[in-house]
Design goal:
Blueprint: H1 2-5, H2 15-22, H3 26-38, E1 42-45, E2 51-54, H4 63-71, H5 98-115
Antiparallel strand pairs: 1-2
């Protein structure tokens, strides 16, 4: 995504070029780009001058949104995740769990940074 963000005027880039420049296996990159296309982060153009390009301005794509779709939850523990919450099996009462409180604080600090940084900041 950072490679696409660095392109002048959203010029399409071939998968092979991204793969070579960023040292990412081509098949792996193809799968990622297909997922990102389905989710509306990138578009593609076929034929001469074709390739992948950002579907939105880099400044409008938060790092938090990218991490969530590529990696999953931002929180380190499922019991503190905002979008992927799961009850902790090891803790009978999250309200008194001291680790939970620290992890919520860590999640909130991380989210504040990632939601306020855009793909443009990686150019």
């Amino acid at each position: 995504m950072a490679h696409l963000a660095r392109q002048e005027s959203n010029k399409p880039v071939l998968i092979g070029q991204i793969s070579e420049t960023e040292v990412i296996p081509k098949k792996f990159l193809e799968a990622i780009l297909l997922d990102l296309k389905k989710l509306g982060f990138v578009n593609s153009k076929q034929g001469k001058g074709g390739g992948y390009y950002l579907a939105r301005d880099a400044k409008d794509i938060s790092l938090a949104s990218l991490i969530r779709v590529l990696e999953g939850p931002i929180a380190l523990l499922p019991c503190v995740s905002k979008n992927y919450y799961e009850k902790c099996d090891d803790c009978p009462n999250e309200g008194v769990c001291t680790l939970n409180k620290v992890m919520v604080e860590l999640r909130d600090s991380t989210l504040e940074i990632l939601e306020n940084k855009s793909l443009e900041s990686l150019k």
